[in-house]
């Protein structure tokens, strides 16, 4: 519940700004860092070790990397911030992590698949994924974006706008419920409830 409340608070903060997070002087990354710091337990890096895979993009070569080893809690926080950094939207200077500059992994690989086990694919955009919104259109036209097939639809363009410029809390609560319902539908279809 704390993460949900933080999400609503961050959205409310950006809605108050004339240009949302693009408003000059607004520091999204500092806000995000504070929120992450308030949520993670002291041993978060130990809990996450080889269980959490964080996707980042190197600014040096544009390649995607998955991080799963975190030397400290601060190391984990930096990796999370790097994976959240969308250039211009989140600021100008990419996140410095272990002596290199990193940005959001979704810009180089929007859907990393782990080499072991089954990766359940989840996205807020409709497409060829395990858990995602349903396409309500009649024609399925896809574009390959960052190694992910994204459906070109008005619904997905609206979802992108809502991701960058959050709608009202009431609408966000509705989107949350839609995502929850999509996840339950997937679990039922896969027979993962016992």
Q: Strands of the largest sheet, in order across it?
A: 2-1-4-3
Shape: globular
Structural class: alpha+beta
Number of helices: 6
Poorly predicted runs are none
Strand percent estimate: 5-15%
Compute the number of strand runs.
6
List SSEs in N-to-C order. Answer: HHHEEHEEEEHH
What's the Cα radius of gyration?
17 Å
In helices, the fraction of residues equals 25-40%
Mean pLDDT, nearest integer? 91
Query: What kind of sheet is the major sheet?
Result: 4 strands, antiparallel
Oligomeric nature of the chains: single chain
Total domain units: 2
Give the termini distance in whole angstroms: 25 Å
Motif (DGA/G): 104-106
Domain PNPLA: 1-117
Organism: Thamnophis sirtalis
GO biological process, one term: lipid homeostasis
In short:
With 194 residues, this protein is of the alpha+beta class.
Question: How does this structure look, described?
Answer:
This protein is an alpha+beta fold and 194 residues long. It has 2 domains: 1-109, no CATH class; 111-193, no CATH class. It is 39% helix and 13% strand. It has 6 helices and 6 strands. The protein has helices spanning 2-15, 28-39, 44-48, 73-84, 154-164, 169-189; strands at 54-58, 64-67, 95-97, 100-104, 142-145, 148-151. The chain has a 4-stranded antiparallel sheet, with helices on one face. The chain has a two-stranded antiparallel ribbon with strand order 5-6. Strand 1 and strand 2 (64-67) form a beta hairpin. Helix 1 (2-15) packs antiparallel against helix 2 and helix 2 (28-39) packs across helix 4 (73-84). The longest helix has 21 residues, at 169-189. The chain is globular and about 45 Å long. The chain starts with a helix and ends in a 5-residue tail after the last helix. 21% of the residues are buried. The model has no long low-confidence stretch (mean pLDDT 91).
């Amino acid at each position: 519940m704390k993460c949900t409340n933080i999400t609503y608070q961050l959205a409310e903060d950006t809605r108050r700004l004339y240009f949302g997070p693009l408003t000059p002087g607004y520091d999204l990354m500092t806000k995000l860092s504070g929120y992450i710091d308030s949520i993670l337990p002291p041993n978060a890096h130990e809990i996450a070790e080889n269980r959490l895979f964080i996707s980042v993009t190197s600014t040096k070569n544009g390649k995607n990397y998955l991080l799963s080893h975190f030397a400290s809690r601060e190391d984990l926080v930096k990796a999370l911030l790097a994976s959240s950094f969308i250039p211009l939207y989140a600021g100008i200077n990419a996140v410095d992590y272990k002596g290199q500059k990193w940005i959001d992994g979704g810009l180089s690989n929007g859907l990393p698949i782990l080499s072991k086990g089954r990766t359940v694919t989840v996205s807020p955009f409709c497409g060829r994924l395990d858990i995602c919104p349903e396409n309500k259109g009649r024609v399925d036209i896809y574009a390959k974006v960052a190694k992910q097939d994204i459906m070109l639809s008005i619904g997905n363009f609206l979802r992108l706008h809502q991701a960058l410029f959050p709608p009202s809390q009431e609408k966000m609560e509705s989107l949350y419920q839609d995502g929850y319902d999509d996840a339950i539908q997937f679990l039922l279809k896969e027979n993962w409830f016992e």
